Structure formats: C-alpha cells, structure tokens
Amino acid sequence: MNSYQHYKQLGEPIEYLMSCWARTRGSDSDYTEYGWADVVLSSDVKDDPERAWECIMHAVAQPGYDKHFGVLAAGPLENLLSFHGDSFIDRVETTARQNPHFAFLLGGVWQFKMTDGIWERVQKVWDRQGWDNVPRGA
C-alpha cells in the first residue's frame, strides 16, 4: 500500500497529510511517493478552505515545520488569502497577534490575488523579519 492509499485508509487525517506534505520538501524529498499531498493541500485551499486552515495551523504548531515556511507561506497560506481572504482575514489578524510563529509565517506571503484591502490588513500584522533580506531584530 502506498502513502496515498494509507492516507485514505486512515480517513484522511490532517496530521498524516501534513507529514507527507513535509516529506516532499528539502534534500530528502521523495516527491514520487508523497507528491499527492501537495495536490490534496492545494485542492483543499480552493475547495475546503477550513480544512486548509487546519492544515496550516497544524504546521505552525509542530516543531520542525518552520523549515518549510517559505513554501507554506508562498503556497497554501498565500492562496488561501487570495481566494478566501474575506472569510479568513479576521482569523488571520487575531492569530498573528497571538502567535508570533504564525505572524512570521504570514511574513512570507505576497499579495498574489489578494484584494488591496486584505493585503493591507495582512501587512499590519505580519512579521517580515527574516524574509526577503529583512534582517532579524529590525
């Protein structure tokens, strides 16, 4: 049984999805076996944004996922805000104010298809330190 079949057999748990998603990143990547997790997470962003939010928050809460924050920010989180910003921006603002780890993740998003209003609100709560040559402690 491959990892996708195992995911389905387990009942599609977020923890397993994100574990597989993380395995598609970095030098020990095995995209052939785990690339399906990228597709599932991307689909969730568009078709099941609440589940995508749960996936993102799972990654924020887990040790070791921060090494994948560049991809998580510029992919799932950026897309979630681009396609569902009106539904999530209040939650994003609250979470960023309460969780510095999330505020840092938010610092890695670009505007993409966010409305100007959503983008302005994101910029007010993000932590850009460490992104795009913005020094830490600035």
How much β-strand is present in the residues? under 5%
Shape: globular
Number of DSSP helices?
A: 8
- Measured as a percent range, the helix fraction is 55-70%
According to DSSP, the number of beta strands is: 0
Q: Return Rg in Å.
A: 15 Å
Compressed to H and E, one letter per element, the order equals HHHHHHHH
What is the terminal-to-terminal distance?
49 Å
Query: Structural class given helices, strands, pairing?
Result: mainly alpha
**Can you tell me the number of structural domains?**
1
Low-confidence stretches: none
- The averaged pLDDT comes out at 94
Structure commentary:
The chain is mainly α and 138 residues long. It has one domain. It has eight helices and no strands. The longest helix has 30 residues, at 69-98. The chain is globular, with a radius of gyration of 15 Å. The N and C termini lie far apart (49 Å).
Question: What attributes characterize this protein structure?
Answer:
globular; single chain; 138 residues; 8 helices; mainly alpha
Give a brief description.
By secondary structure, the protein is mainly alpha-helical. Helices cover 68% and strands 0% of the residues. Helix 4 crosses helix 6 and helix 5 (49-61) crosses helix 6.
